[in-house]
Amino acid sequence: MQKLEYNGWTNYETWNFMLWADNDEPTYNKVKALVKDALTIHGVATVSGLADDLRELADSEAPELKTSFYSDVINASIKEVNFTEIAERLLEENPTY
Fold first, then answer.
1. Can you give the three-state secondary structure of 21-72, one letter per residue?
2. What is the predicted pLDDT for the residue at 79?
3. Domain locations in the chain?
4. Which DSSP symbol is given to 17?
5. For residue 87, which of 12, 9, 2 has the smallest C-alpha distance?
6. Global pTM?
7. What percent of the chain has pLDDT over 70?
8. pLDDT tens column, 60-72
9. Most buried pick, 9, 14, 58, 78, via CB within 10 A?
């Protein structure tokens, strides 16, 4: 099954991550700090490094759920997020985020 773009992003999951990253203040601040840290630590933020940091953020923020259909759906959805695309866009559109 082919996935289609969603609101200018690779897929719904990627769009949804950025929706929360841009509109939920605690998440926005965490993403902003990751971008700032990447620039401070490395001098120039790499897309792959920032993508890895964003993936770790998503994994660490996931709720603890017992094994079930719902936990499987949440985990599958997180795996579909295109963190590389998000990192590229964050660094291209607003390098100081």
1. HHHCHHHHHHHHHHHHHHHHHHCCCCHHHHHHHHHHHHHHHCCCCCCCHHHH
2. 95
3. 12-93
4. H
5. 9
6. 0.85
7. 86
8. 998 889 999 999 9
9. 14
